[in-house]
Design a protein that fits this description.
The protein is 24% helix and 18% strand. The chain has 71 residues and is an alpha+beta fold.
């Protein structure tokens, strides 16, 4: 789990775009999938990928563990 805090200057920005810029190593499409599966919360509530930040939110990003590859 990763925690973030948005600022007033972030208001109006989409959460998927904001997380892509602030969460290291994650693509926007991966973040969108996390939103769709309930892995992104703003102030304790799940949000859609097109959620617009208001500023001052506590963001929780739940990144699932990587699945082992069968080689």
């Amino acid at each position: 789990e990763q925690f973030y805090l948005t600022d007033e200057v972030d208001a109006g920005e989409r959460i998927d775009k904001w997380l892509c810029e602030n969460a290291d190593g994650l693509t926007r499409s991966a973040i969108q999938r996390f939103c769709e599966s309930g892995g992104v919360l703003a102030n304790g509530k799940t949000v859609a990928k097109n959620y617009r930040l208001r500023g001052g939110e506590e963001i929780l990003l739940r990144v699932p563990d990587a699945k082992p590859l069968d080689v």
